[in-house]
Every structure is written in structure tokens, then in C-alpha cells.
């Protein structure tokens, strides 16, 4: 059995259909169908049966899925281990929320480069939900996310606590509108929680993909947002913004460092842990 066939089979099983799996794999439906057919021919059994417009696993398919997940997990772990071990573990893929990327990650990488001069970091900025998925699927080695996170496959370390504040334009009345990151952002969830629990009027919703885009729109009166205090204080729009405190059930959000339990804790990971010590408001040491 080829790995590409097992990856395709796993996607079809989890997505429940050929079309959805093809989109996830960035390929055409005919390729997915062909790989499944060849796998069924190789094993001499049907792996899926029709259910409405979708597919469901047969009993042999359920058994294969258990093994496929283990095989693909080992394949991902092997790739991580080899890549991290190469040249003294000089390469690392780090993910972070955009707010952490803007305010803390540059200094963190600078401290890390001092202990690992040959380091080749690759940085991905995304929402917490996207970063969780990327770590769990071994697309990145570790990430800084908004918590609290509790997952059996993840090692989670408290880094700092962020204080969210209500951000408004400084010189104009804001529109009744929340200006937020896209779905998957914990700060977005907090803003919607604040709107439900602490506001009498309903707010419209605008989604933007960048930190300064959101704050820039708020500065122009397009609405309000919730953002970490230090992010607002460092923003290029600071002179055109004002902010006010929020209730504790909304305002306090932990920032956490996560990595997969199966990711080898080699030299560069240990060096990253050491570099975390300079961060402000640490809840506990590494």
C-alpha cells in the first residue's frame, strides 16, 4: 500500500465523500476515485458503501482506517524527527497568532538565534484553531495560541496572560459593529461573548485578516473590537484609538505554547524553551 493511497483513503473517510476529500487534497475527484479503487483492488474488499450522497466506511474500511492513522502518524513523526535532527536541529516551524507575532515573536526569535546561530525558523501566522490543527497534523513543530487548550495529544505550557480591552475610535462615535478576525480566533469568540453577555444592543460583524487592518478600521469609526492591551499600545493607530477595561470573564486570556507529544524534544525545542524566559508576565517557568 502506498502512502498517497492511505492519505487519500483517510481523507475520504473523514470527509465522508470524494469531492470534499479532493478539495482537502488539492486534487481532482478522478484522482481520489482511482486511488480508492486501486486500494480496494489491492486489498480485495470494498472500503466504502454509499449513504445518501456521501460515503460511509464498511467494516473492513473501519479496520483499515485504524491502521492507516497509525501508519500516517508514524510517517509524520519520522519526517519531523529527521528534519529536526539534521544539522544539529537547525530548522524549526513555528506558528503563532498574529497578535503574538506582532508583539513578541521577533524578540523571541532573536533570543533563540543567539543560542542557535544556525537556526532556520519558518513562521506561520494564523488563528488558534488553524494552529491547533497544524500542530496536530505535524505541519508545524510548535505554536503560540490563545488558551486554555486541553488536548490529550498536546504538551501545553503557559507563557503569559493577555488582557483584552474594548477598543474604540478616539475622535468619532463608533458604528454598532464588531470588527474581528475570521472564525477560529479566540479573541473573536471573546468579543462575541462580550456582545452577548454585557451589551443590550446587537452588533453587526465585519471580518478582516490582519491586525492593523482591524485597528485601522476601528480608528476610522467602523466599529469596535477586542484586542490585547499591549497590541493597542504598540499600534501605529494608537493616537486615534482609545480603550477601556472589560469584565474578568472576558478580558483574561492565557497565551500558551503547544507542541505535539510525539514531536522529538531535540536541541532546538529545548533552546526555544530557554528563550521563552524573557517574556513578560510569565505564569510559570519552563
Low-confidence stretches: 281-286
**Whole-number total of structural domains:** 3
Rg over C-alpha atoms, rounded to the nearest angstrom: 23 Å
Distance N to C terminus: 42 Å
Q: The CATH topology of the largest domain is what?
A: D-Maltodextrin-Binding Protein, domain 2
How many helices in DSSP terms?
Answer: 12
Q: Which structural class should the secondary elements be placed in? A: alpha/beta
Mean pLDDT over the full residue set: 85
Order of helices and strands: HHHEEHEHHEHEEEHEHEHEHEH
CATH superfamily of the largest domain: Periplasmic binding protein-like II
Q: What does the overall shape look like?
A: globular
Main sheet record: 7 strands, mixed
- CATH architecture call of the largest domain: 3-Layer(aba) Sandwich
**Record field, number of beta strands:** 11
What is the C-level CATH assignment of the largest domain? Alpha Beta
Task: Give a concise summary.
The protein has 286 residues and is of the alpha/beta class. Helix content is 45%, strand content 23%.
Summarize this structure as a short list of keywords or feature phrases.
single chain; 286 residues; alpha/beta; Arc Repressor Mutant, subunit A; D-Maltodextrin-Binding Protein, domain 2; 12 helices; 23% strand; globular; disordered C terminus
Topology:
Layout: H1 3-15, H2 18-25, H3 29-43, E1 48-51, E2 54-57, H4 59-85, E3 91-96, H5 98-103, H6 105-115, E4 120-125, H7 128-136, E5 142-146, E6 154-169, E7 177-180, H8 186-198, E8 204-207, H9 211-219, E9 225-228, H10 229-234, E10 241-244, H11 248-251, E11 252-260, H12 267-275
Parallel strand pairs: 3-4, 3-5, 7-8
Antiparallel strand pairs: 1-2, 5-11, 6-9, 6-10, 6-11
Amino acid at each position: 500500500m502506498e502512502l498517497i493511497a492511505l492519505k487519500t483513503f483517510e481523507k475520504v473517510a473523514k470527509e465522508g465523500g470524494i469531492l470534499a476529500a479532493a478539495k482537502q487534497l488539492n486534487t481532482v475527484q478522478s484522482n481520489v476515485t482511482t486511488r480508492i479503487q486501486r486500494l480496494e483492488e489491492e486489498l480485495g474488499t470494498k472500503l466504502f458503501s454509499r449513504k445518501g450522497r456521501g460515503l460511509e466506511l464498511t467494516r473492513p474500511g473501519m479496520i483499515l482506517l485504524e491502521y492507516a492513522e497509525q501508519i500516517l502518524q508514524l510517517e509524520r513523526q519520522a519526517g519531523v524527527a529527521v528534519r529536526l535532527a539534521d544539522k544539529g536541529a537547525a530548522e524549526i516551524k513555528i506558528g503563532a497568532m498574529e497578535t503574538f507575532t506582532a508583539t513578541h515573536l521577533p524578540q523571541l526569535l532573536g533570543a533563540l538565534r543567539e543560542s542557535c546561530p544556525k537556526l532556520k525558523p519558518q513562521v506561520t501566522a494564523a488563528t488558534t484553531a488553524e494552529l491547533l490543527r497544524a500542530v496536530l497534523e505535524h505541519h508545524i513543530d510548535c505554536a503560540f495560541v490563545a488558551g486554555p487548550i486541553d488536548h490529550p495529544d498536546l504538551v501545553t505550557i503557559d507563557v503569559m496572560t493577555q488582557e483584552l480591552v474594548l477598543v474604540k475610535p478616539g475622535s468619532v462615535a463608533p458604528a454598532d459593529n464588531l470588527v474581528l478576525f475570521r472564525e477560529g480566533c479566540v479573541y473573536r469568540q471573546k468579543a462575541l461573548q462580550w456582545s452577548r453577555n454585557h451589551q443590550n444592543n446587537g452588533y453587526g460583524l465585519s471580518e478582516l485578516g490582519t491586525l492593523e487592518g482591524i485597528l485601522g478600521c476601528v480608528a476610522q469609526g467602523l466599529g469596535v473590537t477586542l484586542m490585547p492591551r499591549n497590541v493597542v499600545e504598540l499600534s501605529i493607530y494608537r493616537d486615534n484609538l482609545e480603550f477601556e477595561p472589560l469584565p474578568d470573564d472576558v478580558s483574561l486570556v492565557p497565551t500558551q505554547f503547544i507542541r505535539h507529544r510525539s514531536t522529538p524534544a531535540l536541541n532546538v525545542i529545548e533552546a526555544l524553551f530557554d528563550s521563552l524566559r524573557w517574556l513578560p508576565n510569565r505564569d510559570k517557568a519552563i
